[in-house]
Design goal:
It is a multi-pass membrane protein. It is built from 15 helices and four strands. With about 350 residues, the chain is mainly alpha-helical. The protein starts with a helix and ends with a strand.
Amino acid sequence: SPELKSELDAEDEVKASAHLLDTFLDLVRNAFPENLVEACVEQGYTSYEKKNVSIRGEPAKEISKRNWSRRNGTNSLGLIVFCVVFGGALGTLGKPVEILKQFFAALDVVIMKLVFLVMWMTPVGVMSLLCARILSVGSIVALFHQMALLVATVLSGLAVELFVVECLLYFLVTRKNPFKFLGELAYVGLCAFVTAASAPVMPLTLKCLEENCGLDKRVTRFVVPVGVTVNMNGTALFITVCSIFIAQLNDIAISSGDYFAVLITATAVSVAATSVPSAALFLMVMTLSVIGAPVSDVSLLFTVEWLLDRARTTNNCLGDCFTSALVDHICFRKKPSELNEVVVVTNDEGAAEKLRDSTL
């Protein structure tokens, strides 16, 4: 009946909203782990236990009881929060913790050395994982079709983010043609696409913004280095789409709460990404652990990584340029006469005279 259908729809809506709230609260709980060692191997989540409860004189009813459970997987969010807080506290203490700073610096060098040694075995490992995955797939053609759709989705998302969101924001703030600005940055985009890394292109980005676009050095030399470090819009989009792709590839049901968890985790880990090629693939392990997807399927992405890595790096670099242009416009949108005039008090006459600052 229509009444029964409306009641069922309302009940499903309540359950979905409750599940979304539980997912958000799970992120908050996992952000502050009770045990760091346990956070390296397990993460907490809210589970539901169904029970039949009967009251005297009434029929039995099924109720759901919330439980805080554990499952295998690294609590990446909790480790990131702890490292950020610990590093911030370490940086404020100064000389008393100098030995501890040297220890972590030396540990970083050792770990990077081990990573480079492991990278020499990457071709063998990737080929082995690819062969195992391809042999387990029923239809190779279907797998290639799914990979093609993945590439199209990522490229479409990057194009919308660059040509719609950033260009529209640039036009609304500056009232200038964004495509003309993109034309002045064509060489930067080309170099970013070739190198697949933001850091090596930074000197060229600064030169292009200052000479071709006429932006102030004080803006570009502050915004661009910060953007190279933390502005990873393309990386966040790539991690989100690929995590959902791997989950769907393994027939893992994703709820609205899981989408929210992937969004938060992908944003957090993308900020921590380094501006080196293929850094996002290693960060996807953290996002996949949130939704319980297999990490081994990341090997499939190596087949298209050469293209997607270059596309998202280009998006990140051009995003830094748009941000610099917006900051420059906001800081210096006053009239030149107001910006160039400075008041100087002379020692001889004690009178104020207006001079023009030739540096602007």
